[in-house]
Amino acid sequence: MKIVVLDDSPTIQMFIESYLEELGVDENEVFAFDSGFEALKFIKNHGADIIFSDINMPKMSGYDFARKLFIMKPQLRSSFFAISGDESRESYMKMKRNGARRFIKKPINIDHFNHFVAPEIMKRRKLEQIFYWNEVAPSTTIVWPVSQEAPSEHKNTHAPVKSVAFPIRLRGERFTTSAFTSS
After folding, report:
1. What average pLDDT does this structure show over 141-152?
2. What is the pTM assigned to this prediction?
3. CB within 8 A of 53, min separation 6: which ones?
């Protein structure tokens, strides 16, 4: 998982990183930036799963960052969190017009953060598992010990069945083909 934290304040970066660690995110999965240009470059080259972006930053505002990000990678809208101490309706609407859907107010409330961010992390972890099995499963056969006799169509008249290898199924796709194993 790659989580991008964009904020010009090292203190806010540190708070978000520590909150993410409490949610089980490894520090090697968090990439902090104080420049929207650098964050966009990183995302373009390495991708990102979840993004936190301050709104009020020098050089490139969070509004401009969000607009450019969503032009480059529109699929990231659902995993983008705008962060701001500005609670004005105008600021909220401007960020929303630029594509943001989720907002976290500064100072960051840990319960609020956990309530909205933990499900997103869990969703990303599940996606990682699916992608892992899509890569591994075609070459993987799971062998399960069999304590009872194999079905009659799979009986081997020469040796008793000791274990069975079965295909892995994910979302209706068959990833391996295998048969009963005998000793």
Report:
1. 47
2. 0.70
3. 4, 6, 7, 36, 39, 62, 65, 66, 80, 81, 82, 83
